[in-house]
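Worked example 4.2. Below are the chains of a multi-component assembly; read each line carefully before continuing.
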Amino acid sequence: MSDHRPTRRRLLQAAAAAGLFSAGLPLAAPATPRAETAAIRRRIPSSGETVAAVGMGTWITFNVGSDPRARAQRTEVTRTFLELGGQLVDSSPMYGSAAAVIGHALAALDHPDPLFAASKVWTPDEAATREEVAASARRWGIDRFDLMQVHNLVAWEAHLQTLFAMREAGRLRYVGITTSHVRRHREVERIMREQPIDFVQATYSLANREAEDRLLPLAAERGIAFIANRPFQGGRLIDRVKRHPLPAWAGEAGLANWADALLKFILAHPAVTCAIPATSRVDHMRENMQALRGPLPDAALRERLARHVAGL
Amino acid sequence: MNDALATWLSYRPGDLLMFAPATYLRLFERINLEVWPAQLLLLPLVAMLLWLARRPEHLAHRAAGLMLAAGWAGVVAGFFRLYAEINLAAPWLAGLFVAQAVALAALALLGPGLAIDGDSRRARIGLVVTGWGLAGHPLLLLALGRSPAALELAGLAPTPTAITTIGLLLMSRLRHPVAWLVLPILWCLIAALTWWALLTT
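Applying the procedure described above to all two chains together yields the following structure tokens:
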């Protein structure tokens, strides 16, 4: 059972984080020449468990129905993701056939062990929480989710209570909420303050930094893991920047490509636990997973990246 | 501004789709592959339908109407079966095609059926539209770079089926075919919006 009571350790961490945030200086080592390093793993505050900091989203990219060719390709994308150290796979019933396609891939890969399975409850029917979780688990072909989230706060009050009960009973390990809308941030903050959730998922990227204002500091303060969705703005951001070469100063700082730069911008914020880019291509997955290793940009490099991208 | 409305207005058209353009195109490839080589029957079947529709016998008009209804039902059984796997709204869209199939069947069995003539101005417009649905639409897609395997054909894909139906109804002797035109026109608008959204992703 997760302990969400404020502890001396948590308060000290929050104070340190608050101080650093007010100075606008995220914790990160200065950029150094690229070298082989261990995978970047982030701690889930409520348990102390660590998870690989680059996950995989499945919105649109895995919604391919029964198409055998597309399913085979998504299986290779998943294989590449897992082989390169990825763990957290995030989906939702809202994503159409994505859950079934994930299940197909996992079965083809013989249900790999390091998987961190994350899905969502997305139904206005407050009585259907368990049913929806069970249906998703069947589609994934797994016994239990690691993380179950209330998708875009739909009927969150009732769903959260059921999910907490399921967590207590060991039917899942973590409970969270998600939003993709800045307008819901106030409500998300309220939930973060009042409910014993383990995770919050919200949009955070170089082009969408609103979460830095309140959600990220609050996540650090409350010991809630933060998943950054839409790190590439649904593809728009990375398509835009890829029309231009990665600046030489970014390469010299150890950033391998634009995906690496955009993801490491996110991961350089210490309150971020995991970023979940989505892709349907193996080559793009390889680019994304470069962000799991190597130096993180410091505050100056982050801001330089942001200014550079804004000017593109 | 109301929060819910503001949230919806903040979406770009592409944000409202839950599938990629390539996945949508694959639907047409897959349905074409599933039925191949039945596509070779399309022109002979259309020729038969037009022949029946121009016959003087009411029974022939009934048969023509039922053939057209079968085309709409075929799109439900084929295209929308696959589309429902990737679009949560597809079952409702399929409902439009079911409704049109039923309306055309009712026209055939309970009404005058599908009888056409080529003499009026409206009929000549209808002929052009029918030709567009049967040939112009797939040829345009080819010209725009669509793979032949992913061509949209009447009787298999919804949009050329709708366009061809509009043309045939304009060619028909029905004085007021509006009731049977609403759904095909609505589908053409939906298809146009879908492609607009896909192109903005």
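Take a moment to check your reading of the output against the notes. Chain B has a mean pLDDT of 92. Residues 19-199 of chain B form one domain.
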